[in-house]
């Protein structure tokens, strides 16, 4: 424990800036409100020094708070693990994607995070609540936090309900003649704090936070466990789904086997959760299925990337857009149906060309076609933009040449 604290203090002190974000501020506020109110209400409802049950209840509250904060800060400050800048394997580079931002190759299972601006080992997703990525090194801490938070909030919610019930039992007639709760133990001690109207309002507010956190975070826990038991990440589950769509679309007759599913759930579970607290593997080499090899997934990603270029649709910008998240000037539906994602928006100017890859009824996502100088410099602009700002264009040689130059430049860097 002390070695961990020294690691955070002396080596990762710059990581403290991650706390200056709306995600950790909200998350820590919810934890502080629920924990403090649960401790205060337990003193009112079940004085910890009066009975054994009260003492056990109080100790469990402290225990939940410590475990939740321990796993939360580990998930935030330990981080997911990053591929070294400029990393290049000794061989098999033709099977790997080249990251122009990190000027290195992406190791199997790694992906570039636009928020962290690094290639992340075994990236699952970027979580705004910890203001960091969930990946190879902190996946276990993050999942443990998702389990402990609903358990602690459920305990707190029970305390809030019992506190309100016991304090209002003799003041308000509920008409529950058949509901009888033995409150002889809690009546032996007169609380040192009165249960006033502000205390009732605060308890009711904390109850809402605790129930909401239990439901929302509990659902995230089950989603994480679903992919962990298959030794996948959320990104890899999406890649696997697209692989099946690609095979079905082109009728290639291929059989895609996810390479990292070891067959047994317990074996998959042990890849993330270990007694030592450190995950299995170095973040670059992975145990794989018998019918696969280390680059099975990366080869599929290259196929999907090539297919994405072929199936992208060219659009020409007909209306300027400043890149605002919710543009008021682009219509009522565009304003209220903006994509609920942290993916960026890109500004548009008339005459520019966009290669769109996906979209909704009111918004589209794509890459802006850049000139040769920007392409050689490794620049890339992609993001969301209003659908009304573009129109589908016919075959254009200028666009085709831009696409060709971008593709050839990327291939040269990979080689």
UniProtKB/TrEMBL annotation:
Has the keyword Acyltransferase been applied to this entry? Answer: yes
One GO CC term of this entry?
A: membrane
An annotated Gene Ontology molecular function: protein-cysteine S-palmitoyltransferase activity
Keyword Methyltransferase found: no
Enumerate the UniProt keywords alphabetically: Acyltransferase, Membrane, SH3 domain, Transferase, Transmembrane, Transmembrane helix
EC number(s) from the headed UniProt entry: 2.3.1.225
Residue intervals of the Palmitoyltransferase DHHC domain: 94-239
Q: Supply the InterPro entries for this chain.
A: Palmitoyltrfase_DHHC (IPR001594), PFA4/ZDH16/20/ERF2-like (IPR039859), SH3_domain (IPR001452)
- Recorded family membership: Belongs to the DHHC palmitoyltransferase family.
What remark about domains does the record contain?
Answer: The DHHC domain is required for palmitoyltransferase activity.
What name does UniProt use for this protein?
Palmitoyltransferase
What organism is recorded for this protein?
Oncorhynchus mykiss (Rainbow trout)
Q: From which lineage does this chain's organism come? A: Eukaryota, Metazoa, Chordata, Craniata, Vertebrata
